[in-house]
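PT: before anyone asks, these are the final sequences, not the draft ones from last week. 636 residues across everything. Please model them as a single complex and drop the result in this thread when it's through.
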Amino acid sequence: MTATVGESKVARPTGPGSTGSTRKADRSLVAVPIIVVVGLGLVALYLSTRTLDTIERRTINVENITARLGEHLYLTAVSTAIVIALAIPLGIVLSRPALRRVQPGVLALTGFLQALPPFGVIILLAFSPLGLGATTAIVALVVASFLPVVTNTAVGLAQVDPAMVEAARGMGMSSRQTLWRVELPLAVPVMVAGIRVALVLNVATATLATYIGAGGLGNIIDGALRLGRPTATLVAAALVAALALLIDWLAGVAEYLVRRRSG
Amino acid sequence: MSDDVRPTIARPMIARPTIAHPMIALQGITKTYPGQTRHAVAQLDFDVPDGNIVMLIGPSGCGKTTTLKMMNRLIEPTSGRILLDGEDVTGVDGDQLRRRIGYVIQQVGLFPHFTIADNIAVVPRILGWDRKRIDTRVDELLHLVGLEPRDFRDRHPRQLSGGQQQRVGVARGLAADPAVMLMDEPFGAIDPITRDRLQDEFLEIQRQIAKTICFVTHDLTEAVKLGDRIAVFGPGGVLQQYDTPEQILTHPANDFVAEFVGSGAAVRRLSLLELSRLELEQISVDGVDSPNGHPTYRADAAGRAVAWSHLPGVSEMPPLVTVPLSGTVYDAVDVMLDMRTPLVAVVDHEDRPQGALRWDALVRELPTKGRRP
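LR: through. Structure below.
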């Protein structure tokens, strides 16, 4: 065909990942690692000017920090994995024509769960048969971060252009093929954004797991606060902040890549 | 019949088509949507002959799109039978059925996360063709729709213009070489100039592939231009008339069709009448024949007409303007109005004059040579 150069500009808008916001995302993706490195550097610099007493040395050492960081990452990873495994199928099921009518009700319920303060949920769950420990903390984290993943899955699937689905079905794709090859790939950017929110929520909320004996970086903060060691509190708090920023950054990179691929 | 001389018949005319071999047949089809008492389509008997383009037209909500979507069972009929090439497909698996029928929609619906080649290859992949066969087919189809495979195969839909996307949409519909294509206003969302070009290309493609095509449109000009037959739908999904474009324009079956066709019907009809089918007024080269009553022109060495030399009944000599024999009466009228001349010379593909058409002749019955060969 005689395609003029001007004509090709009439291409469809690329949705949420249009040029403007992509460029903004680019900039923040570069900025975050710099902020984290500079921040941690400043904390290290401050530490080097201080002489630590025995109590401080017992918490602020590589071994202890690595162990608590490991617990923190474990809580975050397991809870997020469970959320993904449960919330995405639920979101998909809710977006099917047969169940679309109950979608608002289910989303209201998960919204209610998220509105509960995570600290309260963690403490309350400790009085349940689950008792103290990591399992209880993970259940609480799942409750807290369930909503964004369900919502974004359902919304992501709902915003797929109906023409895509009509074209797919009209060509003879089964409803399952349409879901896997057309609807889900097109919904992935929105779904990944939901998972990113869940991840960040879980990193932050895992700090509270220490109160039911599930460890994590919150353990250092809590201990240092009780013993009146502001330096140790500062270090642990800086670590939690840096971790949250880094995980958000990683998820952001993933989201950016996915969005660029599915244009 | 061969010497049948009637005005404005450009195509074979059958009063109410009785079709020996319908590719698609709808028998007593009714569709009522849940919760509605009115039929969307009521008791429809409809045959689409093999190799024809049938245009479904009518006001919005008349059931033309519903009818189209019942042919591939995207919408299930409430009652009635659907036959595809003689086979009752009312109860077969819908997905399997749709893989045998091409489908093109107005919004094109290309998958943005697929390349152009992958978009075209959707149905062949589902059907399990091998890679080499798919690649060959994709290139063949891109050529057919006028897109250079080397440039377009690996692009994504967003890098294409609306017109190019719709070409890919047509190629995708043709991918598995279905006998039947269903098209739902495929050129509806495209600017008029591109649309006109796409329609011409579409007719050219159809000349090569001769598919059975059902085409929904709301544009009468498009229906007249593309259709071998036109089905006019009215309120309540009732088929009002199903006939050739000529018959629809000249003999509307009822007041509804007459009103739908509108006051422009007489002018529209001109675009259906090809100049090659007219008995043109005889003209000759100046000096060769005795100019006994018919116009003569001066020619150059190659036999091309350059000017009129003698025009009986015309006082002021107009400039000599030509129209190709492959054009329509509409084109001739356009040129006459544009150049303010009372007659045009009709020339063959080598620019040699074949005859003349006068303005006066238009308001008389245009003499034709009977059926198109």
